[in-house]
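#onboarding

Welcome to the new folks! Below is a worked example of what a typical request in this channel looks like: someone posts a single protein sequence, and someone else replies with the predicted structure as tokens. Don't worry about understanding the tokens yet, we'll cover that in week two.

Example request:
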Amino acid sequence: MGLRTLYLQRMLTINGRDSLAGRQLYDRLGKLSEDCLLGHMVLPTEEASKVSDPRIGNDIIPHDLLVRFDPNLIYVEGGLFAGVEGEWRIPRPMAEKCVRDGAIMIVLDVDYNRLGNQKMHYKEATSFFQVSIDYGLHDDDEPVYGADLISNWGGGSHEIVCKPDKMIISEWLRPIYEEITEILVGCPVRLRDFISSDIVASGNRDSTGTLHHDLWVDRIDSCPFASAAKFGLGYAVFIAGSVSSDVWLERCPDNVQWLTNLGVFLLEQASRDRVRAASHLRSPFVLFLSHRSVDKTVVEQVASEIKRKGVAIWFDKERLVPSDSLVREISRGLEQMTHFVLFWSKACAGAPWVERELNAATAKLIERRLPILIVRLDSTPVPDILADLYRLEGSDMSPTEIGSAVVDAVQRLAKRGGS
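Example response:
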């Protein structure tokens, strides 16, 4: 797959040589890409045409040029915002469209000071990155940050040397660390509430801790500081720490390879996702996912993994619009399904909505011999009528693992020819 890389440097060129902090990273991407476009920010075409200062003309990328260039890989060094007013370096609608259409957008070097000074703006970006910054128990203006008294650069405990075998990383992202012995991050900020995102990088499990206002929060914490979230057909990556500057790369050249691997791997993943997304429409199986609304976030992630595995689903968020009749659409789903998957939790016990779906599914099971799968999300006992049916214990599993287990169960049941 040909790379078309848009690289937004930290500052305007008039600020001198340091305006492009990651020259080594940019040069590597330039060698790998069919085309590479360098600038500082993207503006609507009409607004860009009003920039009269020739010294910054090349730093401003008009929207129509962005559309023609059609990047599939975007690196934004030095944080997301162009100024104190919270303007995205790529206007948010443009950024979201690029990623939704399949691009990978990596926002890196989002340092401690930026996250403190632009707290509200980064909070508003949570829905894009699907992860939150940890500002402490009382949501203080100062973020919680990592330190490592053992594995660091030159005795600076906030400049952490992270070893892949000691880091917390979502398993499907492990390939980006092939042949990477270490990465260096400056003053990483702890991320939390990984809503629909996965952990790309953290400190060391055995030696990294976190501080708030220079006081220890957890002396051993690992401090996850980088995330990746599926957004449409692409991925949005957030790195809360300094990783791309040439200063860091002199000490840790693996950072260049790691950041390059990250973009290329996710782009390949997005390409495979598109194939799988298309293939799930041709799946011989249609899974009806029954759940309570309080479990919707988890079920959405499970549904995404099921489709990624090439199996079709019937899921109310994707099939319903406000004007639809819920009863009619649920009935259609039950007519179309080949398997009924019930996500059982404390919220389900005694819920009439789930009971209606379950009664309908049980009738179909008797009439059409349709399999029922139970995914137990906590320790709540299932009803007696379900006690002997196929059950997955998902309380200690991630949504990705649950999705994979459901698909495996469906395939095994198909081979056995029954429930």
